[in-house]
Amino acid sequence: MRVRVLGCSGGSAPGREPSCYLLGGGVAVDAGALASALTLDEQNEIRHVLLTHAHWDHCRDLPLHVINRRPGTPTLTVHALAQTIHSLRTLLMNDDVWFRAFDLPSANTPFVAAEPILPGQTVEIAGYRVTAMSVPHTVPAASFHIDDGRVSIVISADTGGDGGRIFKSIPPHASRLRAVFLEASFPNKMKDFAVMTGHMTPEMLAAEVALLPHDVAVLVTHMKPGFETELFQEIADVGRHGLRPCRDGDVFEW
What we know:
Layout: E1 2-7, E2 20-23, E3 27-29, H1 40-43, E4 48-50, H2 56-59, H3 62-68, E5 76-80, H4 82-92, E6 112-116, E7 122-125, E8 128-135, E9 141-147, E10 152-155, H5 165-168, E11 177-183, H6 191-196, H7 202-208, E12 217-221, H8 228-238, E13 243-245, E14 251-253
Parallel strand pairs: 3-4, 4-5, 5-6, 10-11, 11-12, 12-13
Antiparallel strand pairs: 1-2, 1-14, 2-3, 7-8, 8-9, 9-10
């Protein structure tokens, strides 16, 4: 499995793109940097977006990506919780902020097709078995367990953590698990603010992954711009083998 990190920041600044991960087969997880980090040719290869939730930094580039797709490019399919799709329809692609891409040019041939996915449901997408796992955040959010038949990974949404239960809900075939992408947005001194906003600190992340096998890599995402130096040190202080910050431009292969 190959994952190209188009963006993994918890915000946006020069050199820091919001959440977006590119897999093979024209599949992306989140769309924060789907237009800004890919060429037009690369964008036209995208067929599926797995959207963790509706917050702006995770769907920012979706409208621009849709308008960048060439005429005749197959419909883009967005896979997400029903509440997330509802938010996109009513708050973003609603004919006020952006055109109704889920309904135009016709209901039968839209620019964007919606495929709701339920927590715990496993679906086949472009050769991957994808299982949605509900995670606690300030809005409905899902992490995705993605299995290509040889190895698997988890790309997590923003979350305040839940005592490791995220990983207890991984399906039985997760014995192939190689890596987890998991957030630590704020330094430890800001734990109260992190909890209030549905996020984690490095100390909270360490507790979350404590029961994961030690050969599973933990790639820390969603660090808020301006806090990276402090977060890098606190991540190193955790002392867990295979735990390290994720950076824009990283490419992982398992």
